[in-house]
Amino acid sequence: MHTHPQTPGGDVSTGNSASCSRRLCHRKLTDVVEEVSASTVKISKETMALESRITQEEIKKEPEKPIDREKTCPLLLRVFTTNSGRHHRPDEFARGNVPSSELQIYTWMDATLKELTSLVKEVYPEARKKGTHFSFNIVYPDPRGKMYRLKDIGSTVSGRKGTDDSLTLQSQRFQIGDYLDIAITPPNRAPPLNTRMRPF
């Protein structure tokens, strides 16, 4: 009588059962790998989204570096003003040209819009009237061409406190070499809407 050889543990080993066992293990292992891969992709996407949100929050909450004005040389800020309530056109800064209404101010990157408003009012007495509106635009070169673009960075009103008063050149990503364009509107006229923005 023929008998199958037994393992020390007493179980009977056959080629078919071993083959099935290997196929089953391989299938389970494949399922596990697919689940892990899917989970990894999901985690990776969530991590990228989280990093993106964190980066945007860091940009918004990025603390300004304190500037010691006694030890830091001021920068020359080239300011261009209008009394019509409207900003200069971008093409007025093209090909090395600039508008004629230039005002040069020596200041620092931590200068606030309120501080700049006071400096402008020293030069233009008519702008000291209560209710005069000051709209600030940064004029910067377009990296994709030879044109300039304007970015709205805030506004102030003479004789009144506003939410933009404490905004600084540094906080608005002003760079040395940029210009500042200020549209001044008399108190008896409402300032025009301005939707031109600088992309970041």
Task: Summarize the model shown.
Helices cover 29% and strands 20% of the residues. By secondary structure, the chain is an alpha+beta fold.
Distance between the termini: 87 Å
Principal-axis shape: globular
- Architecture of one domain, CATH level 2? Roll
- Under CATH, the topology of one domain can be stated as Ubiquitin-like (UB roll)
Share of helix, binned: 25-40%
Family: Belongs to the SAP18 family.
GO molecular function: transcription corepressor activity
Keywords: Repressor, Transcription, Transcription regulation
InterPro entries: SAP18, SAP18_sf
Q: Can you characterise this structure?
A:
- Keywords: Repressor, Transcription, Transcription regulation.
- InterPro entries: SAP18 (IPR010516), SAP18_sf (IPR042534).
- It comes from Takifugu flavidus.
- GO terms for molecular function: transcription corepressor activity.
- This is Histone deacetylase complex subunit SAP18.
- The structure is a single chain.
- This protein is α+β, with helices and mostly antiparallel strands and 200 residues long.
- The protein has a domain of 109 residues: Ubiquitin-like (UB roll), CATH 3.10.20.550.
- The chain is 29% helix and 20% strand.
- It is built from 2 helices and 5 strands.
- The chain has a 5-stranded mixed β-sheet with strand order 2-1-5-3-4.
